[in-house]
Amino acid sequence: MMPHKYKVFFHHGDELGLKTKVSKGEAWIDDAGLNIKGPNGAKVIVKEELRKAELVRLCGSLRVIQVEHKGGRLFLCVIRFMIGQFAIGNFFGNGKLQKELSGLLSSN
Fold first, then answer.
1. Residues 6+ apart with CB under 8 A from 75
2. Short-list 32, 36, 40, CA closest to 8
């Protein structure tokens, strides 16, 4: 069965703010772990390196997923659409992706 792919914006780093440059791409979860495909290619964070995935609020309005892994911190947000650095998030999509990540973490 093909994994569900989510349209996302993402940022690797310690903080995410309104002025942070983010990248647009796709994210999906499979047996290997969390896959992210963006403008600079694809990356897999293998499930053994994942530590935590939780929903956090950005600037009091937008929910994003904060992923802690062996290599640092990643912020993900499932989006409805994105123009430049302006994005409208998908509230339910973020919840679904976070639950999939939590399931992957509990299988470690």
1. 10, 11, 13, 16, 22, 64, 65, 66, 67
2. 36
Instruction: Kindly report the pTM of this predicted structure.
Output: 0.91
Say if CB 51 and CB 108 are below 8 A apart.
no
Residue numbers in the chain where pLDDT is lower than 50: none
Residue 59: CB partners within 8 Å, gap ≥ 6? Answer: 17, 18
* Cβ density class 33-70: b for 16+ within 10 Å, e for less: bbbbebeeeebebebeebeebeeeebeeebbbbbbebe
Which tokens in the block code for residue 42?
């694809």
- Give the architecture-level CATH label for domain 6-106: Roll (2.30)
